[in-house]
């Protein structure tokens, strides 16, 4: 007897955790975007003084960092949505549908995009932290995102192959 996918606790938890993550990421995008617009429209006088003492490129660098951060959040949001769609197909009992291979490939590109943006952002933020004392930078580049992207690209191929094998099997029956 096959297990009832509708009552699978792990899938249920995953679905709810993804919904929460999507909500948090969306809210973060909204807050960061509003803060960036507020910074541009209503500059803080003390921040303006500190920026005046810093190199002239500081404000454009801050805007670049904020825009890159927002782009990373948008890619993360899209990643979570794609993962949610895969979880739904697993819950429906049809994980080897061709659409999941495409979703996994998109998730691979998104993971690669977030990783590349992080690598691009780190030296810029490090430079910026040298000119703004209150900005503290911790961390560094990681190969985890690259490993995730490669894994997702491989899984996309596996799912494409699995979907093709299933179609062949159904065609012979």
UniProtKB/TrEMBL annotation:
Q: What name does the UniProt record give this protein? A: DUF2975 domain-containing protein
| Coiled-coil residues | none
Transmembrane regions:
20-41, 61-81, 109-128, 140-159
**InterPro entries assigned to the protein according to its UniProt record, in alphabetical order:** DUF2975
List the keywords (alphabetical).
Answer: Membrane, Transmembrane, Transmembrane helix
């Amino acid at each position: 007897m096959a297990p009832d996918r509708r009552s699978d606790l792990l899938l249920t938890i995953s679905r709810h955790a993804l919904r929460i993550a999507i909500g948090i990421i969306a809210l973060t995008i909204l807050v960061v975007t509003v803060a960036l617009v507020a910074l541009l429209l209503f500059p803080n006088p003390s921040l303006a003084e500190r920026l005046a003492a810093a190199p002239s490129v500081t404000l454009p660098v801050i805007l670049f960092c904020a825009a890159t951060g927002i782009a990373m959040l948008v890619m993360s949001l899209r990643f979570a949505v794609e993962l949610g769609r895969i979880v739904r197909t697993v819950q429906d009992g049809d994980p080897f549908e061709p659409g999941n291979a495409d979703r996994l490939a998109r998730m691979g590109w998104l993971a690669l995009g977030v990783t590349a943006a992080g690598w691009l952002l780190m030296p810029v933020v490090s430079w910026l932290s040298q000119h703004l004392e209150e900005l503290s930078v911790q961390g560094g580049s990681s190969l985890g995102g690259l490993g995730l992207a490669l894994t997702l690209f491989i899984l996309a191929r596996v799912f494409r192959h699995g979907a093709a094998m299933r179609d062949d099997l159904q065609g012979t029956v």
